[in-house]
Amino acid sequence: MQNIEIFEVGYCVHPEFVVLKGGSFKTIKFPAMVALIEHQKGNLLFDTGYSEHFFEVTKKFPEKLYALTTPVHLDKPLIKRVSKKIDYIFISHFHADHIAGIKDFPESLIFCSKEAYLLAVNKNLSRFKKTKKGVLPALLGNDFEKRVTFIEDLKEVDLPDILKPFKKGYLLFDDIYIIKLEGHAKGQYGMFYDNYFFISDAVWDMKTITLNKRPNILTAFIMEDWKVYNQTIDKLQELHKNSPFIKIIPTHCSTTLKQYIKD
After folding, report:
1. Coil, strand, or helix at residue 106?
2. What is the tens place of the pLDDT at every residue in 10-43?
3. Is residue 263 in some structural domain?
4. How far is residue 95's CA from residue 16's CA, in Å, rounded to a whole number?
5. What is the number of domains present in the chain?
6. What letter would DSSP give residue 40?
7. In this predicted model, what pLDDT tens digit does every residue of 219-249 receive, in sequence order?
8. DSSP-H helix ranges across 70-206
9. What is the CATH classification number for the domain harbouring 177?
10. What cofactor requirement does the entry state (predicted)?
11. In terms of DSSP bridges, do strands 168-172 and 176-180 run parallel, antiparallel, or are they unpaired?
12. In angstroms, rounded to a whole number, what is the distance separating the alpha carbons of residues 70 and 67?
């Protein structure tokens, strides 16, 4: 096994009933998880979490609406916590809590979805509409296109049987599988490596997979496709039943992250 280190890089807060249907009205914490994989090809980040850049780009409207509706707390950004050179950054999708630290690592090469990127830079889509979708293009920096390789341009492969019912994916570095997890956001992908499956926001809480406690239908308005989102949950539940040894890690599940965070 090659080393995997998991960090919490900031968090936001929301009422519990939003994430879990039937949950309480108490405010709970949604950590922003980042994984650092020390791979033989180089050090690879799964997402970046929050950074000071988030607060900078949300000072003015309409982007400020994001900060007002999603109160963010950040103790220390990732750039101040990792001493290793970051060679690559994998972006699961383009919501701000996953990309806010990109500009902190200007020498890192980037992997992301082309369809997600094209949405972010679509000049026919207003800043307000992008903010409503949780996308803040100013976080990407001016040299993003020079640094990026699109997931869709990687080799498409049949996935191993342990990942059923997921059938197709993309291959990164010969041993990392990139798997589309549709419904939450355009171009969202998870990453499977060494029996770790980082599923981003395919679910917000592991209870959605283990106990079928799904998000409140009120969250449908922020989803790319509510029906497809629930179909992805169905697949993750089947995967967990078939291959319980796989460590499924949602980005925002505090209970799950406590098992793995060292820092």
Report:
1. coil
2. 999 888 887 777 777 788 889 999 999 999 999 9
3. no
4. 20
5. 1
6. T
7. 999 899 999 999 999 999 999 999 999 999 9
8. 96-99, 114-120, 127-132, 144-147
9. 3.60.15.10
10. Zn(2+)
11. antiparallel
12. 5
